[in-house]
Amino acid sequence: MNVRWVGAEKTVYELVGGSNWFYELMDFFYEDVEMQNQIRHLYPEDLSESKRNTADFLIQYWGGPSEYSDKRGHPRLRMRHAPFPIGGTERDAWLASMDYALAKMEPETRILEAMKEYFKTAANHMVNNEKRQ
Predict the structure, then answer these.
(1) Residues 100, 39: Cα–Cα separation, whole Å
(2) Domains in the chain, CATH or no CATH each
(3) Spans in the chain with pLDDT lower than 50
(4) How many alpha carbons lie under 13 Å from residue 101 in its C-beta half-sphere?
(5) Which neighbouring-strand residues pair with 5?
(6) How many angstroms separate the CA atoms of 44 and 100, rounded?
(7) What pTM does this model have?
């Protein structure tokens, strides 16, 4: 499945209704990050910029406008996350918070499956601290 396109003619971005869907997804994601408090220490005190940057990245990735790259350049996700020790515990906590957010948003099955597959791959790619598996 092409992760950016689901169906013959529409992007995931179009199918979920645009940017607001991703901003709401990030509101739920960071709500759970704060509630669970397992990876909260990896984020700045004010989550506004983190929410915006993550939503803008996902908007662009899933077929929306390129505001993320226009503002921040190439995503270089692994490089941007390198300063933070990310092992299996952090990866799993991140995925659990993303699952929470996706459950709150209730996307249709084909979108949910594509997103879960992408998030799992991305989370595994961010692991940079083998001792914390």
Answers:
(1) 14
(2) 13-132 (1.10.490.10)
(3) 1-3, 132-133
(4) 27
(5) 11
(6) 21
(7) 0.88
